[in-house]
Design a protein that fits this description.
Helix content of chain B: over 70%
Shape of chain A: globular
Largest sheet of chain A: none
Radius of gyration of chain B: 23 Å
Helix content of chain A: over 70%
Largest interface: A-B, 91 and 95 residues
Structural class of chain A: mainly alpha
Radius of gyration of chain A: 24 Å
Oligomer: heterodimer
Order of helices and strands of chain A: HHHHHHHHHHHHH
Number of strands of chain A: 0
Largest sheet of chain B: none
CATH superfamily of chain B: MetI-like
CATH superfamily of chain A: MetI-like
Number of helices of chain A: 13
Number of domains of chain A: 1
Number of helices of chain B: 14
CATH topology of chain A: MetI-like fold
CATH class of chain A: Mainly Alpha
CATH architecture of chain B: Orthogonal Bundle
Number of domains of chain B: 1
Distance between the termini of chain B: 38 Å
Number of strands of chain B: 0
Strand content of chain B: under 5%
Order of helices and strands of chain B: HHHHHHHHHHHHHH
Chain lengths: 292, 270
């Protein structure tokens, strides 16, 4: 009995914090999304009305919502595979017995991960500058005409994707390195004896052995990429021509700029539902792979 | 070196350059004279190095205050979240109580919910409590986290039960056992947890942006974002601002990177 009490005392502070500042707000957010909570309700709660599914209907018929959704999906669908491919490539190179100065390379490749997103977004905004940016300067050396990276609706999202890949690939690289180290050498030896070339070894030994890690990394990376916000906030303010407005950016604008908190909550829950659906789909694919 | 070794190392060097050049360029531009970076062709190194941008940043833009705000908030988050997460993680791993496993599963399930779903009502709640536009409002939601509890639990599972039983037989209370036996053994994971908490809080943007309306209270990233909207043309000043925001966390990481990377792999492979 006494030990029960002790255990609860240990757990209580953390569970209280998570309950009060996460679980309750999540439930309240769902409730909020069914009300017309706006600036008037913020001033006086007597103005609050139950709105049923109005917010969801409004959001789903809002052209800017669909633009933001497509922009976010573009960011996820292109960014996640690029990021994972680069992480895996770096991990394989770092695991190679031929690689030298491994600790240095590992630290260098990981460094962008620990930097402050806003600060490096500011750096990249200048790197992308049409006239004085280093990127156009280098491309110019190959005879490529200057591109208005952040000012051209066709290039703004690719520029943000490239920046995000740079910022984040090191994290998954570390996870892949640990997973590669766990693959027994005997498997490679057996493959070599069977006459498998390096690329064949990668395809038939490394990739299958990495299956579970690859799945986990995909889910984590995808979840993170769906939460795109600071990059467009700092680099493009959603522009040009709304080409970098993400779903969260829309939620922030609706909620904290126009104070349409009910509608913003509906945006948040639509995004959450989408993330759950995509995660479920990935899980189903993974389960089928494992069974096969 | 044979051709293959040359290829591996050259590729790694190129990738390392890709990772580091933007950071090196930031440092270089931060020492340039105002306007020097906006000349054609863009210079790589400062022609006449100056500390002027840093002086302006601290004397006129109040960056020192913003950095101290960030430091205070990050310390607050780190101290409380490490304490609460370690207590809870240890209890979930080693103490028995009714409903333990169900509660832990419920917490894990909460990991799939993105924090932004809670942000709008949380803002209203904190407004009611009078915590909007205070440091406490930024700190409070970060005082405990499921991922931190999970990390500690995974680590604490490997502690030998005999050790705890022996202490209990000696008549030690649970709190004393925790402080004198368990905590020293958990030291490595405590360092990892503290780093995650500090870096996460220092680098966070969206939540402090929402909670802190008052410019005086802004954290370094929030201040940097608003400065960069005002001073679009002053790349040298903005690079100095980025340097002072990034360098503290980068140094912390370099000093303790073993602990940080260990936590990263531990959190993913279990």
């Amino acid at each position: 009995m006494k030990s029960q009490l002790a255990a609860w005392t240990f757990v209580a502070p953390a569970v209280t914090v998570i309950g009060m500042f996460f679980a309750v707000p999540v439930a309240a957010g769902l409730a909020l999304s069914f009300t017309d909570f706006d600036l008037y309700a913020l001033a006086d709660l007597a103005n609050l009305r139950f709105a049923g599914l109005d917010n969801y209907a409004h959001v789903l018929t809002l052209p800017l919502f669909w633009t933001s959704l497509l922009n976010t999906l573009y960011f996820v669908v292109v960014g996640v595979p690029l990021s994972i491919a680069l992480s895996l490539g770096c991990a394989v190179l770092l695991q190679s017995p031929l690689a030298r100065w491994k600790p240095f390379f590992r630290t260098a490749l990981f460094a962008p991960v620990v930097t402050t997103l806003v600060a490096v977004a500011v750096i990249w905004r200048y790197l992308y500058h049409t006239r004085y940016g280093l990127i156009n300067e280098w491309l110019g050396a190959f005879g490529i005409e200057p591109v208005d990276w952040l000012g051209d609706p066709r290039w703004a999202m690719p520029a943000i994707i490239f920046f995000s890949v740079w910022k984040g690939f090191g994290a998954n690289m570390i996870i892949f390195i640990a997973a590669l180290q766990a693959i027994p050498d005997e498997l490679y030896e057996a493959a070599r004896i069977d006459g498998a070339s390096r690329p064949q070894q990668f395809l038939h030994v490394t990739l299958p052995m990495l299956g579970p890690t690859l799945f986990l990394v995909s889910v984590l990376t995808m979840t993170g990429y769906f939460q795109l916000f600071a990059e467009p906030y700092v680099m493009t303010q959603g522009g040009p021509l709304e080409s970098t407005v993400s779903v969260l950016y829309l939620m922030y604008e609706e909620g904290f700029r126009w104070w349409n908190l009910g509608r913003a909550s509906a945006v948040a829950f639509v995004l959450f539902a989408l993330m759950v659906a995509v995660t479920r789909a990935l899980m189903a694919i993974h389960a089928r792979r494992e069974a096969a | 070196m044979n051709a293959r070794a040359w290829f591996v190392n050259a590729t790694l060097a190129a990738l390392a350059a890709f990772a580091l050049v933007p950071l090196a360029w930031m440092v270089s531009v931060s020492f340039m004279q105002p306007g020097a970076a906006s000349t054609y062709p863009p210079p790589v190194l400062p022609a006449e190095p100056t500390f002027g941008n840093y002086r302006q940043l601290f004397a006129q833009s109040g960056m020192g205050g913003y950095l101290l705000n960030s430091l205070a908030i990050a310390c607050g988050v780190t101290l409380t979240s490490v304490l609460f997460n370690v207590l809870a993680g240890y209890a979930f791993a080693k103490l028995r109580f009714a409903g333990r496993d169900r509660l832990f599963r419920a917490l894990l399930a909460a990991l799939v919910i993105p924090g932004q779903v809670a942000m709008l009502p949380l803002f209203l709640m904190l407004k009611q409590m009078g915590l909007v536009n205070t440091w406490a409002g930024v700190i409070v939601p970060g005082m405990a986290g499921v991922f931190g509890i999970f990390l500690v639990r995974q680590y604490a599972l490997s502690l030998p039960d005999e050790l705890l039983e022996a202490a209990r037989i000696d008549g030690a209370g649970e709190l004393r056992i925790f402080l004198e036996v368990v905590l020293p053994l958990l030291a490595p994971i405590v360092v990892t947890l503290a780093m995650f908490a500090f870096l996460g809080s220092w680098n966070d943007f969206m939540w402090p942006l929402i909670v802190l309306a008052d410019g005086e209270l802004h954290t370094a990233p929030v201040a940097l974002a608003s400065l960069s909207r005002e001073h679009v043309q002053d790349s040298e000043l903005m690079m100095a601002g980025s340097v002072v925001t990034i360098v503290p966390v980068l140094l912390l990481f370099l000093a303790l990177q073993r602990h940080y990377l260990a936590g990263l792999t531990m959190g993913s492979l279990k």
